[in-house]
Amino acid sequence: MKKLLVIILLQLNPALAHETDLKCLAKNIYHEARGEPRHGKLAVAQVTLNRQRDPRWQGTVCQVVYQPYQFSWTSKKRTEPQEFDSWIEALELAEKVLQQGYALVKFPATHYHNQQVLPEWSPKLIPLRRIGQHTFYY
Predict the structure, then answer these.
(1) CB of 51 within 8 A of CB of 57?
(2) Staple 103 to which of 8, 24, 97, 112, CB 3.0 to 4.6 Å?
(3) Which residues does 103 contact at the CB level (< 8 Å), separation at least 6?
(4) Summary count for the chain: helices (H), strands (E)
(5) Given pLDDT bands bounded at 50, 70 and 90, which one contains residue 40?
(6) pLDDT tens-digit series, residues 18-35
(7) What predicted TM-score, i.e. pTM, was given to this entire model?
(8) How many CB atoms lie within 10 A of CB 112?
(9) Which of 15, 14, 33, 17 is closest to 93 using CA atoms?
């Protein structure tokens, strides 16, 4: 019941939770991995948490997500989720991850990219695993 209430409140009044870690992590999962398998969504969540703990990015989940030039979706004008079912799934995963404090055990990745692009930083890092359409690095 509590989870349903949180989801309803976030949907009806986005300003209420605009800067909460739950909403920021859910938006990152939604925008970065909504077409990916569950494991891929969890990997994106883990990267976010790994960055939060890393001295290069420190801060709240929201500060990590909205740090300039880290996640491309944050620079777009329209960032509110449009696909309701995918958004609810992202919220549920984000809530679970934040309660546990981790998404995937022994997954040290701090970077990833879609297979359709090859960022300049990728040769400088160690590839960890490919999940869905993303390659993860540390």
Answers:
(1) yes
(2) 97
(3) 42, 43, 45, 46, 49, 93, 97
(4) 5, 3
(5) very high
(6) 459 999 999 999 999 999
(7) 0.84
(8) 26
(9) 33
